[in-house]
Each structure stands twice: as C-alpha cells, then as structure tokens.
Q: What sequence folds into this?
C-alpha cells in the first residue's frame, strides 16, 4: 500500500449561501492536510467565476444559493470541456435532490445532517474518481419526465401550473412573448406533450399532486 501522506492534497473550492457554513467548511478542510482550500464563494455565479480562473479538482457547493443555484451550476458546467468534480452539500436532502444532482452530472451528494467526517470522506472519494450518493431509485430516475429540464424550463412549467398566461410569464421572466413560445415548444418536446394542459398534468403527476 502507498503512503497516503505522499499524495498531493485535494485542491477544492467551496460555495454556500450561509457565511456560517462557509466558515465551518473552511475550518474543516483547512485543518486537514489531505485538502488544499483554494477559494470560498458565496453563490453559484462566483463559483463559476472560480472555475474559469482557478485550477482545482473538487467543488463543494450548496443546492439552494442566490443568483445561481446548484442546478444552474451543474447545467453550466455541462457545457464546458474540463471541469472540477462536484459534490453538492445541502440541507435540502429530499429524495429528488440527489437524483437531480446525479442526472445533471454531479459526482456526489452529502447531507448537512451527516457528520463532518462523512463530508470529508465524500470529497476524498470523489477526488479519486468515485461517485457518492445516498440510495436512489434508478428506475424512478429514468422515468422522471422532469429530470432533463433546465432551471428555466422548471420555472416555466411551474408558472404554467400556477395558471400564468404567456404574456404574464414573459413579464415575470423579463423576456419576449416569442421567447416564451420558443421555450414552450422545447418544453413540450421534452415532456412529449402537445399543449399547456398536458404539460401541467405531467408536472402535477411527477410531483405527486392531486394523487389519492
């Protein structure tokens, strides 16, 4: 067996909306010689800026962040050729979140209810090329019609379910009516539906709303 002390520390960047969590994670990783903390970010936009200008192996990000959330970060990284491996560290541990993280190309998920040691273990495993997730029903993931939607499409679908008209959606999102229609066409295609009513029905069924 090799001597773990000879391994290069894992370069990482962390991002979380909470200054308290930022400070706690910075202390945790800085105190462990297996890691090299490169930067700390307060939101997804700043994390993506760090990806563009810094070199690091693993990013530990929150799921609910201002300006750009975890979903948005993962979607943006899918468009880039070489990116760090991402661990989502979140208190939002509902069954859908780890599933979405995996679908969007994340390498791991760790709940904030877990011990700090579990977070360290997750980051080390991801740095070594493994994926670390809680149990996920893969059959459900493969059959979730909403799993492949972008953040904008999720927002659009929620607006449809809320009864917003195309004109109201355009005003809400500060985009043109034609752009709304373009997004709707793409949305209907992904959901394999033909109209607004069918899209809303698909959304409600996927969310388990209205089921007995």
A:
């Amino acid at each position: 067996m090799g001597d773990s002390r000879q391994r290069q520390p894992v370069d990482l960047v962390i991002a979380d909306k909470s200054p308290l969590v930022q400070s706690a994670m910075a202390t945790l990783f800085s105190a462990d010689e297996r890691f090299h903390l490169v930067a700390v970010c307060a939101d997804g936009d700043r994390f993506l800026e760090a990806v563009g200008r810094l070199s690091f192996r693993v990013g530990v990000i929150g799921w609910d962040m201002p300006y750009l959330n975890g979903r948005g970060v993962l979607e943006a990284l899918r468009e880039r050729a070489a990116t760090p491996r991402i661990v989502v560290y979140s208190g939002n541990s509902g069954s859908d979140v780890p599933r979405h993280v995996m679908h969007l190309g994340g390498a791991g998920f760790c709940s904030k209810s877990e011990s700090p040691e579990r977070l360290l273990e997750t980051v080390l495993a991801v740095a070594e090329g493994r994926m670390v997730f809680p149990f996920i029903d893969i059959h459900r993931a493969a059959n979730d019609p909403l799993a492949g939607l972008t953040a904008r499409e999720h927002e659009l679908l929620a607006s449809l379910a809320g009864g917003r008209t195309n004109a109201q959606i355009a005003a809400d999102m500060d985009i043109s009516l034609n752009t709304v229609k373009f997004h709707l066409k793409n949305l209907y295609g992904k959901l394999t539906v033909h109209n607004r009513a069918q899209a809303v029905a698909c959304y409600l069924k996927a969310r388990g709303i209205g089921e007995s």
